[in-house]
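Format notes (please read before filing issues)

Several people have asked whether sequences and structure tokens are stored in separate files. They are not. Every record keeps both together, in the order shown below: the sequence lines, then the token lines. Line labels are part of the format and must not be stripped during preprocessing.
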Amino acid sequence: MDTAYDNISNTLMNIPGWGTIAGGAMKAASLLGKGLGRLGGGTDGKTKKDAVLGSSFFNWNVGLINGFGGKKTISIDKDYTTWARAGNSYTGSQ
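Then the structure lines:
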């Protein structure tokens, strides 16, 4: 989606007058969304919805609301040493 967004904004930038303004506004909005995403307003992209809301189309508006107002998921890392010691008894739980 980001590639399509960039292609649209680049195409608009080649149109004199209103196209340059619209393309520049799109690039500014994308840059603003990426900057705010680094400050905690972005999504983690773990779900399809998060990936869409984190794209350049939405990261500066609806995605920003989702990023700041939505719940954060907790990541769990697998301890391979512990699972290796568990043996065959708990392989189904992996």
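For reference, the curators noted about this record: The mean pLDDT is 75. The two ends are 34 Å apart (CA to CA).
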